[in-house]
Amino acid sequence: METASERLGDEQALVVEGLKKVYGGSEVLRGIDFAISRGECFGLLGPNGAGKTTTLRLCLGLTDPDGGSIRLGGLPVPQRAREARVRVGVVPQMDNLDPDFTVAENLTVYGRYFGLSRADIAERIPRLLEFAGLAGRAGAGIQTLSGGMKRRLTLARALVNDPDLLFMDEPTTGLDPQARHLIWERMKTLLGEGRTILLTTHFMDEAERLCSRLAIMDQGRIIAEGSPRQLIERHIEPQVVEAFGEGVVEWARGVASKFAGRVEISGETAFCYAGEAAPLLASLDRERAIRYLHRPANLEDVFLKLTGRELRE
User: Fold this and answer.
1) If both were cysteines, with which of 4, 20, 125, 130 could 164 make a disulfide (CB 3.0 to 4.6 Å apart)?
2) Distance between the two ends of the chain, CA-based, in angstroms?
3) What pTM, to 2 d.p., does this model score?
4) Starting from the edge strand earliest in sequence, which strands make up the sheet with 213-218, in order?
5) The pLDDT value given to residue 174
6) Rounded to whole angstroms, how far apart are CA atoms 312 and 203?
7) pLDDT tens, 234-249?
8) Both 129 and 181 in a single domain?
9) Same structural domain, 94 and 191
10) Residues 253 and 135 in one domain
11) pLDDT of residue 26
């Protein structure tokens, strides 16, 4: 059986160049560029309002750009968006399952949208439900499903047309740890089959686990791009000490500032970024009122350094 990668040949799955979008006089996207190779998981990270969902809508041809170009599966978008979407599956940010239909009926209606025959869809449904951990639920009503089940059904629905490329917009938001890990395992399976995934997420550990490359967006621009490990090495000190407790602010501004390359104070916690943590730890061992956590730097540290710790609405 032909894999998704073989169907795409040598083409990149998605190429975006100079993409711009203006809403109400406000420039939401300011000329972004990225390309996704076939078979990889590419992440788009950014605070609320950075432009992630707008980017996905533009790439799917659901919104017209105000500048730049998009090629989806080798086809220009929005000019040939409908044709390009035939080989694309979408897991939207919010579940939009039809509550009046059963599990199987939701899959059938979606498959018919792609022109699949009822017989073909009926043959695919058992495999899709098994893949989503919903075997035996074909006749269940949507209202009887848990949040995790609905999310897994949305993933199964996105696969009904056997897509080469999946757009996944915050697929695990609101799920408990068990459901998140199941979705992650299913995504790894899809990547192992040669499919391509464009992922947006607010979970840095999710991006670090799944993405071979990612771009960090802020205020309509891409401000960093690379593999998770590359971004950590380029943008952050390797060791992090988080200190909290009585007197931590004074300690951070005094002792910590001498040994750390960078110190950030957020509320009652001091984040100390350093090439070598030993002097900081030795000092903290003498501070009985201050507790601390020592760990290697991660993608969340990079994200917060580049986009700031201020709350975004």
Assistant:
1) 4
2) 47
3) 0.92
4) 88-91, 165-169, 196-200, 41-45, 213-218, 221-226
5) 87
6) 15
7) 999 999 999 999 999 9
8) yes
9) yes
10) no
11) 92
In a domain, 133, yes or no: yes
Query: Residue 38 belongs to what H/E stretch?
Result: none
Q: How does pLDDT run across 178-200, given as a tens digit for each residue?
A: 999 999 999 999 999 999 999 99
Domain match, 176 and 197 both: yes
- E-assigned strand segments in the chain: 14-23, 26-36, 41-45, 67-72, 75-77, 88-91, 165-169, 196-200, 213-218, 221-226, 239-245, 262-266, 269-274, 290-296
Matching residue, tokens 């060791």: 239
pLDDT of residue 310: 81
Strand ranges across the sheet with 67-72: 26-36, 14-23, 67-72, 75-77
Split into its structural domains, the chain has a count of: 2
Beta-bridge partners for 311: none
Last residue within a domain, chosen from 198, 225, 252 = 225
CA distance 306 to 313: 17
Smallest CA-to-CA distance from 108 within 151, 157, 144 is with 157
What is the CATH number for 32? Answer: 3.40.50.300
